[in-house]
Design goal:
526 residues; five-stranded parallel beta sheet
Length: 526
């Protein structure tokens, strides 16, 4: 009996899968793009239509809410375990621990509502590169406000007198655990099919194809790029995979509906401004996220601020140079992080030095001239190549990957460089060869976060506005490191440095440092 039921159920599921596949093929045929997508994209479309895959926002909001509840509950239990049982505490609670626990767990929905009010559940669906790093300030502020509001309310009504040490323990543990669990929740969501977003780019020109390349090169964004919509597309560049032209702008609304598109990015098509505005407005009635690349986007950065003159929005462009107080603060932060960092990392530095000596006789350090804010200086790095690697560079020029079509001859990069030693290969994959640059930070030639320190052969190609990138000292890391390292073209790297200089802030530096960590963990080569 059970066997027959199981066979019937299997047949029913098979039939559903066949019908869904047929429906998917029908939709692709109606859209005129039946052969345009790879198997992975077709599978996602099929699962969307079957209802087995929901949208990113539905998945991430629930995962983050669960992470917050578990983090807050764990922080409370740990704080209670650490300080709740001390009968000799100077100011014991006036409330029974069991009642206190029941009251706290009853308030967990309030914490979730507060997190929602702080916008801690909504940005993953709206922003492609959003991460827990971007929320640290919000989590810290939310936990701080709610914790001390509870403390103040309890003290004012004399309902309880929470121990200050227990409250501080809960506050610090809550911030830490919420952030860590949010990292884990997002990592789990990224492995789920619901995390992927179907995306169409309007405009197949230089800007549209640049955006497409960035999205293709960052699978962690969870973007399933379907293709371009443009009436007058440019010739497609290399490195865009199987992306195709889906049709003209008149088909955009139908494509969004038929292909269950989550996000449409407008990137300078040849349509008139009036037609583009009308096209955006027609999409706003649909369940789709709309992103628009702003005009003068080379100058616009996330740190820009909007203000208005009688309803007309204006974007304030920040100055290129730091004030004296900001420069002093940046230098202070460098020293506060670098000096302890050198002390803590000293055993690692010694171990690396020994490994270099054992694998390849010669000096441990490599000193190379780079261009700094006040002129050339010598950078400290662990040696990862043969002793005479620089002198023999001309022998391997033909291996420079940037000499290939579509490359940039101003840059020099060899995949699997034969001059790299065995130990050097490991150091480069994890950027451990750059640790001695902390000495440059300590002496004032560099900063922890800043523009890329270019060799003189590359610096000679930097002209006009791009020279402003050295209004700040070169950095051990920067936007170029966090967003792709050697995979970023030369011109794009200059723009990133320029935007960093014009939008510096202490929080931005902290965010870049934290964003650099996963890049190093993924073991890319420099």
């Amino acid at each position: 009996m059970s066997s027959a039921w199981g066979e019937a159920r299997t047949a029913e599921r098979t039939g559903e899968a066949v019908r869904t596949a047929e429906c998917t093929s029908s939709r692709l045929a109606l859209a005129g793009v039946e052969g345009a997508f790879d198997d992975r994209t077709r599978d996602l479309l099929q699962r969307r239509l079957s209802g087995s895959v929901r949208r990113r926002g539905w998945l991430v909001r629930r995962a983050l809410a669960a992470a917050d509840v578990i983090g807050l509950a764990s922080a409370f239990v740990l704080a209670l375990w650490l300080f709740g049982g001390d009968e000799g505490a100077p100011v014991p609670d006036r409330i029974d621990p069991q009642i206190e626990a029941l009251l706290f767990f009853a308030t967990l929905p309030v914490w979730v509502v507060m997190a929602k009010l702080y916008g801690l559940y909504d940005h993953d669906e709206e922003r492609t590169g959003h991460s827990t790093v971007d929320e640290i300030g919000g989590v810290f502020h939310m936990v701080t406000v709610v914790t001390w509001l509870v403390f103040g309310a309890a003290w004012l009504v004399s309902f309880a007198e929470p121990q200050l040490d227990k409250l501080l323990a809960f506050w610090s543990l809550a911030v830490l655990l919420m952030c860590l669990l949010r990292v884990g929740a997002r990592a789990s969501c990224r492995r789920h099919a619901s995390y992927r977003q179907n995306v169409i780019i309007v405009g197949a020109g230089d800007v549209g194809q640049t955006i497409a390349r960035k999205l293709v090169n960052h699978p962690e964004y969870g973007i399933s790029l379907l293709g371009f919509v443009d009436n007058e597309p440019k010739e497609r560049r290399d490195g865009l995979g199987d992306l195709t032209l889906l049709g003209g702008t008149e088909r955009l609304r139908a494509l969004v509906e038929l292909l269950d598109v989550d996000r449409v990015i407008f990137a300078f098509s040849n349509e008139s401004e009036a037609d583009t505005v009308e096209l955006v407005r027609t999409l706003q009635t649909m369940d789709v996220q709309i992103d628009v690349v702003p005009r003068l986007y080379e100058l616009v950065a996330p740190g820009g601020e909007f203000h208005a003159v009688e309803g007309l929005p204006l974007l304030r462009m920040p100055p290129l140079r730091l004030s004296r107080s900001s420069a002093f603060l940046k230098r202070t932060l460098d020293l506060m992080l670098t000096i302890p960092g050198l002390i803590v990392l000293s055993p690692v530095l010694v171990a690396i030095a020994i490994a270099i000596k054992l694998h390849n006789p010669g000096p441990v350090f490599f000193r190379q001239v780079r261009m700094g804010a006040k002129g050339p200086f010598r950078i400290w790095k662990f040696r990862t190549m043969w002793v005479d690697a620089d002198e023999r560079k001309h022998e391997f020029t033909h291996l420079n990957k940037h000499l290939a079509p579509g490359g940039d001859a101003r840059m020099f990069k060899i995949d699997d460089d034969p001059r790299v030693t065995k130990a050097g290969g490991f150091l480069r994959r994890h950027s451990l060869d750059e640790l001695p640059q902390l000495f440059n930070v300590a002496t004032g030639d560099m900063t922890l976060v800043g523009p890329r320190p270019l060799i003189l052969e590359e610096d000679c190609y930097v002209h006009e506005w791009a020279r402003q990138r050295l209004s700040l000292k070169p950095g051990v890391t920067g936007l170029w490191q966090a967003f792709g390292r050697s995979g970023i073209p030369f011109e794009e790297m200059l723009k990133l440095d320029y935007l960093y200089v014009t939008n510096w802030s202490p929080l931005a530096d902290l965010r870049i440092i934290l964003q650099t960590v996963p890049v190093l963990v993924r073991a890319q080569s420099d």
